[in-house]
Design a protein that fits this description.
Layout (H helix, E strand, L loop, with lengths): L1 H15 L4 E4 L2 E6 L14 E8 L2 E7 L7 E3 L2 H6 L3 E6 L4 E7 L11 E7 L6 E3 L5 E4 L3 E9 L2 E9 L10 E9 L9 E2 L1 E4 L8
Antiparallel strand pairs: 1-15, 2-13, 3-4, 4-8, 4-12, 5-6, 5-14, 6-7, 7-8, 8-12, 9-10, 10-13, 11-12, 11-13
Bound molecules: 2-acetamido-2-deoxy-beta-D-glucopyranose (3 copies).
One 2-acetamido-2-deoxy-beta-D-glucopyranose (NAG) binds next to loops.
Length: 203
Amino acid sequence: MAVFLFLAAIFTLVIAQLPDTSSSFNFRIRPDFASYDSPLRAIKGWDLSSYHLSPCYDYAVFTNQTGRIFYANGTAEEFSDRTSTIASDGGSPPWPWGIVVSAANATDSKGRRQVYIDCGAGTPGMSVADWPATVYYQTGTFYVCEETFLYGPAIALYWREKVDQTPEGCANVELQAWCLEDETEHEFSRKSTCYLEGDDSDD
Ligand SMILES: *[C@@H]1O[C@H](CO)[C@@H](O)[C@H](O)[C@H]1NC(C)=O
Ligand SMILES: *[C@@H]1O[C@H](CO)[C@@H](O)[C@H](O)[C@H]1NC(C)=O
Ligand SMILES: *[C@@H]1O[C@H](CO)[C@@H](O)[C@H](O)[C@H]1NC(C)=O
């Protein structure tokens, strides 16, 4: 009994470090940092947004303004097979866009797998974990780099395989889903675990 209470106390302590979770159809995506030594940590809590490049083709970047609204999208079968997508409405009138992780044979000029928000279907396998509210793709790692694109500087999002190295000057991020009260549903959307606003107790 004493051992059980002790373990329960430890568990509660560990849980207390994370903001409360809930679930919602729509969420924002924000970065968190495991390491304290990167200046890029200044973007902790910024929203994932898009950097418009050409019609139907945007880079996924973080902004200190209000970002895009995302939702988990797929059929029941796709959710159980982990081939569902993460979508976000865009354009006017709005239609579905998706988060796209560049294929291994479609890297940028520096050999990195950039993340896009493009119109149409997202990359199958982009998911929100049941707990905690982490956005993940396969077993790899997301990271951010400061880049200067055609229309100016941005903090852009990339993904790498677990075995690959994060490039110098870039920083690994954990992507987190943050709940929105917006109850808008889509044909293939379903509720995702997400963190509750106003409860970011971490530093
Ligand atoms: C947001 O970012 C822009 C461009 O990086 C900067 O000029 C502005 O001061 C920032 N605003 C806030 C509130 O941090
Ligand atoms: C990239 O790989 C995919 C399969 O993963 C293949 O279908 C596609 O044709 C390849 N593209 C190029 C440009 O080689
Ligand atoms: C949403 O899921 C449906 C069903 O699989 C698919 O047809 C559609 O392309 C997906 N949309 C996005 C934006 O990923």
